[in-house]
Amino acid sequence: MTEELFREEAGLLECSATVVAIDDAGVVLDRTVFYPLGGGQAGDSGTLTSADGAVLAIADTRKHKERPGDIAHVPAAGADLSAFAPGTVVMARIAAAKRLAHRRFHTATHLLCALVPHPVDGCSITAGYARLDFHMAEPLDKDALTAGIARLVAEAHPVGHRWISEAELDANPQLVRSMSVQPPRGLGRIRVLEIEGVDLQPCGGTHVANTAEVGDVVVTKIEKKSAMTRRVVLGFAAPPPTA
């Protein structure tokens, strides 16, 4: 299984790793800082660099469909993989600005969950925007939600994570806010994201360490997708670079 360094250190941008396998899905490493697509959050991009200086551009990161527990680093189209045979030691580096945008937006969606006390029926977190679909019929006010997020950002709440047992989650089912994505089972423990005094729910994504780091995130759009779905779209007041 690929060791998932991003689970404990969301700010870690690079690590040394060894190529375990290469197949149609991509390059599998023994450990990685690359977050794979999942839980609504987009996968990381970046580079793998060998000791000889060969550089492999990674366009996306996915959970390997045929190797449970492994992560596939998807090469850019037309990339030359000849210098990255199994056993090769590489430096794995993610696109720093893209990861920071994911961390800010993902934390902002948790703030939004605290402001809108309804189940979540869909989620997407990218470097350019984030959205949450709430299972509800009542209208939402864009300016009020933007002001609410700004207040929680200004209050500088610490953000952290811990692990609970599956039994603890079963005893507290209200912790699960999502209707579409359930916490992974079978490992005996569940990762929960805690924003002190604001939000507590299962989440495996990457986040900032304090709500102050979310910065100027605003509600750019609210849509009525169905009779029981209200979509809230978040954006940066001043979009950061994503390179």
SSE map:
Blueprint (H helix, E strand, L loop, with lengths): L2 E2 L9 E10 L2 E4 L1 E2 L13 E5 L4 E9 L7 E5 L13 E6 L1 H20 L4 E6 L4 E6 L6 H13 L4 E7 H6 L17 E7 L3 E4 L14 E10 L2 E8 L7
Parallel strand pairs: 1-4
Antiparallel strand pairs: 2-3, 2-8, 3-7, 5-6, 5-8, 6-7, 9-10, 10-15, 11-12, 12-13, 14-15
Quick structural summary:
The chain is 16% helix and 37% strand. It has helices at 96-115, 142-154, 166-171; strands at residues 3-4, 14-23, 26-29, 31-32, 46-50, 55-63, 71-75, 89-94, 120-125, 130-135, 159-165, 189-195, 199-202, 217-226, 229-236. Helix 1 packs across helix 2 (142-154).
Structural commentary:
The protein is α+β, with helices and mostly antiparallel strands and 243 residues long. It has 2 domains: 3-94, Elongation Factor Tu (Ef-tu), domain 3 (Beta Barrel); 98-236, Threonyl-trna Synthetase, Chain A, domain 2 (Threonyl-tRNA Synthetase, Chain A, domain 2, 2-Layer Sandwich), CATH 3.30.980.10. It contains 3 helices and 15 strands. A hairpin with a 2-residue loop joins β2 and β3.
